[in-house]
Amino acid sequence: MIVIIDFGSQFNQLIARRVRECRVYCHIEAPTITAEQIQALEPEGIILSGGPASIYEKNSPRVDSDIFNLGIPILGICYGTHFMVDSLGGKVKKANKREYGFATLKTKTAKGLFAGIEKETVTWMSHGDSIQSLPKGFTVTASTDNTKVAAMANTKKKFFGVQFHPEVAHTVKGTKIIRNFLFDICGCKPSWTMKSFAGDAVDQIRRQVGDKKVILGLSGGVDSSVTALLIHQAIGKNLTCIFVDNGLLRKNEATQLKEKLKNHLQINIRFVRASTRFIKALHQVSDPERKRKIIGKIFMEVFESEALKIKNADFLAQGTLYPDIIESQSAFGGPTSVIKSHHNVGGLPKKMKLKLVEPLKFLFKDEVRKLGKTLELDDDLVWRQPFPGPGLAIRIIGEITKKRLNILREVDAVLQEEIRAAGYYRKLWQSFAVLLPIKSVGIMGDGRTYENIVAIRAVTSKDAMTADWAKLPHKLLGIISNRIINEVRGVNRVVYDISSKPPSTIEWE
Ligand code: XMP
What we know:
By secondary structure, the chain is α/β, with parallel strands linked by helices. The chain contains 15 helices and 18 strands. It folds into three domains: 2-185, Rossmann fold (3-Layer(aba) Sandwich); 194-382, 3-Layer(aba) Sandwich (Rossmann fold); 401-496, GMP Synthetase, Chain A, domain 3. 33% of the residues lie in helices and 24% in strands. A nine-stranded mixed beta sheet has the order 2-1-3-4-9-8-7-5-6, with helices on both faces. It has a five-stranded parallel beta sheet with strand order 12-11-10-13-14, with helices on both faces. Strands 15, 16, 17 and 18 form a four-stranded mixed beta sheet that branches. Helix 6 links the parallel strand 10 (213-217) and strand 11 (239-245). The structure holds xanthosine-5'-monophosphate.
């Protein structure tokens, strides 16, 4: 495996992704990790990431410089290279000219990182500092017009540094450079597969949990379903899942889940019907934040009282993913972690002192989907679009009533059917309907109508941090609109949301 030291670059997840795409396993670690701890992980190589700080600043992040004595190959990227230079006796200074964007790299060697790479290749730069003098034993291996030391190497020690970012797609031969580091320099083997990950994860769960009991909150989304499947493989009946029907779900959602996970896979699931309690508490509540708070609070109460019925439970399983972990521990954890916090389900049941089991915590979303496929999870669950915890409550603008919930459910069902039929379901990050709190005039048959308006929202996205409104074909939009107005009583107008995130959010509330 490879250890990546996180100096706070916005591209750190990309480094991890590139390494894993080469089928080599990797971890991102905070700079507080010691050389000894790194050694214990037995990595074949270390990558020092980029970061927003300047190495000559007072509190710039540093990792234990004993890593240079471990005999492990090291690749520095941007700030990571500056750290290497500074630690080994070279000098980094503010550059005369900031270099940002594309730059043509002129290589001086066809070995090491640059084996099989043309003499001139396009790279992507983002730096305000540059290397003034190299540490002993290093040579310059590439330059650009603005940057004399665009890459350096100490081949004897297998230390390499680049000023550009090989992990971003704009660096044309970036993946090749990373492959050269992993396979030629570190001697890694491309042996990491989802199957091997699943096997390791099952062993790890067995070791952690032993013959104790585990509780899991099942939402119907891919993360919690895959978590359930993995833990079920490890400990079978000692896993109990709790599914809370809050009355804010989509049409047939609870039934489908029951069919797929409980009946088909024999997973132990308790279905708690609590819709009346939720809907009562939401009576006459229009404010989005209040809606979220009420739903979160009741969810915890219901979940906790159900969990307390399970005797001798020592563990709580969660489908936490890697991006959540990275964001909360990043050396420069910026505002992103704050924006996201409200999306995570609100904490642990307090009365029970449960330990956490998080088998997906080193995976990205698409890797979770691959894992789901490896575990033979039903395709419908593997490819399910994300659905927010507060459910349809935040898609009914204004007051929530049973009647309005039913209207939205029917609209949503028609929409999903058409999106799937047109082959768009998997291409979209999300597609859903929003019920608006205004009515408009229409005409149906010979009569005047005065009914609800629904908005259709469909977006493409990689991670929900940014999103584009989907350019769905007009013909498809026409079919959707027609069917909704004809088939769902209470709706006489359909509009399409053409806003991207930012500045809009994906959900309306
Ligand atoms: P926004 O609306 O902030 O949403 O652009 C980004 C992503 O997060 C989902 N979302 C939530 N998920 N609980 C959740 O579990 C929530 O309260 C919540 N709010 C938004 C949203 O569906 C989108 O995928």
